[in-house]
Structures are given as structure tokens and as C-alpha cells.
Amino acid sequence: MIKVDNIKRTLIGNEFFTFDYTKQPIKESEVNRWREEGYYHKSFTGGLYSSRNIMPRWTKDISNAIGLKNCGYTFYKMDTLDIMPPHYDHFEAYCRIFNKEQNEVYRAILFLEDWKPGHYFEYNKTSFNNWNKGDYVMYSYDIEHAASNIGIQPRYTLQITGTR
Q1: 48 Ramachandran zone, left/alpha/beta (phi>0; psi -120 to 50)
Q2: Shortest CA distance to 49 belongs to which of 23, 13, 29, 85?
Q3: Rounded to whole angstroms, how far apart are CA atoms 106 and 4?
Q4: Which of 82, 18, 73 lies closest to 47, judged by CA?
Q5: Is 2's pLDDT higher than 60?
Q6: What is the pTM of this model?
Q7: Which residues, 6+ apart, have CB-to-CB distance to 100 below 8 Å?
């Protein structure tokens, strides 16, 4: 399922600007596939601030507003030239932790700021830009998607993974 919608902008705090974002490794098989496709970047991801850290209270308000429960949260910061080539989310850790099947899991990407030049998101071979703070896209494991930042300002999103 793909959903483009908007929640109240006032629910979103601004703590995410100060989080300590770290890059985490991606499966070698995925990196190898991207290299075979011609991607040559050293790193294929932005910085993450995950649920292993303390989350702002408003993250639960957001997940309630979009209809997800049993949620895991990851703030995602893409700096200039960070890319995430087309891929599918596997939700392996989420399924293991919450004892769920892959087809029960959804992910929402919440845009934490208004769109800025060079910020890009694609899902199901459709580009998405010019978003507003509070817009989000929700999808399941079988939707291919990608993201990049060729702009000069960081691109911030919140990934919410849960069940409906």
C-alpha cells in the first residue's frame, strides 16, 4: 500500500536537528548489487538515530495519527550526496522483535521539514518531491523505493515501522 497524506505539523518537534546520527552498515549483497548497477559511492545511507535511543514523546502521537501500532522509530538524516538506491525493506529485525510476518509490517516515511531543492524520494517508480512538513508515505515490504540528497541542506525524515 502506498499512501500520501498529511498530519498536523504542530505534532512534530525539532529535537531531531541535535541528534547524534550514525551511519550503519548495509547488507553486503545489497551493496554488491548496487555496484553491479553502476553506483560507486563509498556509503549508501544517511545517518540514523534509532529507537535504541530515547525518542521524543511526539513520535507516539504521530504513529497513532497515522494508524500504526507496536512501532519502531528511526530518524534519518541525509547529508549532501547521500544516496539510498532503489531497494525493498525487509523488516527482518522488526519481525524478529515483534514476532510478526513480513506482510503484516508497514513503514511510514514522515517528512520533518518542507521540501528543499535537491531532496528526493521515490517509491514504486514514482518520484515524490515538493512535500510539506508532516507529509508522509506509507508502504509495505513489496514496494521499491529510493532516496537521495543532492541539495546543500540536510534532508530529515522519520521512519516509523509498525503494524496496522
Answers
A1: beta
A2: 23
A3: 14
A4: 82
A5: no
A6: 0.91
A7: 70, 91, 94, 163
Question: Measured between alpha carbons, how far is 9 from 63 in angstroms, rounded to an integer?
Answer: 14
CB-CB contact of 68 with 160 (8 Å): yes
**All 3 cell numbers of residue 21?**
546520527
95 Ramachandran zone, left/alpha/beta (phi>0; psi -120 to 50): alpha
pLDDT digits (tens, 9 = 90+) for 10-46: 789 999 999 999 998 888 999 999 999 999 888 788 9
Q: Is 112 exposed, middle or buried (0-12, 13-18, 19+ CB in 10 A)?
A: buried
C-alpha cell at 63: 504513529
Q: For 54-113, give the DSSP string.
A: PPPTHHHHHHHHHT-EEEEEEEEEE-TT-EEEEE----HHHHHHHT--GGGEEEEEEE-S
Query: Domains in the chain, please, with CATH?
Result: 3-163 (2.60.120.620)
pLDDT tens column, 54-78 = 999 999 999 998 999 999 999 999 9
C-alpha cell at 86: 532503489
